[in-house]
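We were asked to recover a plausible sequence for a given structure. The inputs and outputs are reproduced exactly as logged, with field labels preserved.

PROBLEM: sequence recovery
POSITIONS: 341
GIVEN STRUCTURE:
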């Protein structure tokens, strides 16, 4: 499913089944694929089936990239169809584990918020913010939902602004301010018969929806293929015809960054980078009944890797490690010419 596909036009059950078949075919990508399949099951109202997919991952014995995320999603889903006690136990376990990834924190805090556990939601958001952002000068993009969610819950609780709320204001990029977006009195305006009040609320909702769409816009990026140095050397040695595509490793890295900047400048969203390996490329070529020497296969390979959840979003935060694998911060490596975002 493409990110621009209207939700009402998606057959969630068939999409979930397709992703599950793909996970069977590519077990190394099962985590990303089955999480997407579970999301479709939830959207289709098949919540027990979604839980079965989360359990499949958790009991697979595989070394999951983010087991806390899987557990958080399972807890949120369980609570939605009546398994509150089990959901709370999982949420308590995640809070005790204190993962360094923001995503599980966001999911469990929002689950608590959705079920009117505002004090617990506030505590959870605050725990995460203190853990992940204490001493951080510029909050990474992935932590923004924590700050915004905490601000929202505090407004509902009637709490006074604090330093973390001020930080939430600083990362908010939409024209309607957070205090207005998160005003508990907005719910009353939805029942108003005053056309001006209703129009104002529609504008607020559109701004809020835009924030959610931006946050959710990255699952299926337009991906550019990156070969690590050793893989590129092996590739061009095994398939000399591809040397024309990759005259040198340095040129390959420069081409990737230039292409992504050009796409970004043209307004293309959902940009990402996928890393190729020679064995998986050869397997892909075999599945397409095509020689690996065929350069036209390369963009198809990149698209397939992205569809299997293998893409990393571009650009990274300036303080994050550069996508090229140098170990240097992106802002001091390939992002050195990128204007501040």
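RECOVERED SEQUENCE:
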């Amino acid at each position: 499913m493409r990110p621009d596909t209207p939700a009402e036009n998606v057959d969630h059950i068939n999409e979930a089944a397709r992703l599950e078949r793909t996970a069977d075919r590519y077990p190394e990508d099962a985590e990303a694929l089955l999480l997407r399949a579970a999301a479709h099951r939830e959207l289709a109202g098949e919540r027990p089936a979604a839980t079965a997919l989360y359990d499949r991952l958790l009991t697979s014995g595989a070394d999951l990239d983010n087991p806390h995320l899987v557990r958080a999603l399972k807890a949120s889903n369980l609570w939605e169809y009546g398994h509150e006690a089990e959901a709370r136990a999982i949420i308590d376990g995640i809070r005790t584990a204190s993962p360094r990834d923001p995503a599980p924190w966001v999911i469990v805090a929002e689950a608590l918020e959705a079920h009117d556990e505002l004090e617990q939601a506030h505590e959870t958001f605050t725990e995460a913010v203190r853990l992940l952002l204490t001493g951080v000068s510029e909050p990474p993009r992935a932590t923004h939902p924590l700050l915004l969610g905490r601000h929202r819950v505090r407004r509902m609780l009637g709490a006074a602004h604090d330093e973390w709320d001020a930080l939430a204001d600083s990362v908010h990029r939409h024209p309607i301010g957070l205090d207005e977006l998160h005003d508990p009195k907005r719910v009353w305006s939805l029942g108003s018969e005053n056309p001006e009040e209703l129009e104002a609320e529609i504008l607020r909702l559109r701004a809020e929806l835009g924030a959610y769409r931006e946050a959710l816009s990255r699952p299926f990026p337009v991906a550019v293929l990156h070969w690590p140095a050793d893989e590129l050397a092996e590739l061009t040695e095994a398939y000399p015809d591809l040397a024309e595509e990759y005259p040198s490793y340095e040129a390959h890295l420069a081409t990737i960054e230039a292409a992504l900047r050009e796409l970004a400048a043209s307004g293309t969203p959902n940009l990402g980078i996928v890393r190729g390996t020679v064995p998986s490329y050869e397997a892909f070529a075999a599945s397409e009944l095509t020689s690996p020497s065929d350069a036209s296969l390369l963009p198809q390979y990149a698209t397939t890797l992205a569809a299997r959840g293998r893409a990393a979003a571009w650009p990274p935060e300036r303080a994050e490690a550069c996508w090229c694998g140098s170990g240097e911060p992106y802002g001091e490596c390939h992002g050195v010419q990128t204007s501040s975002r």
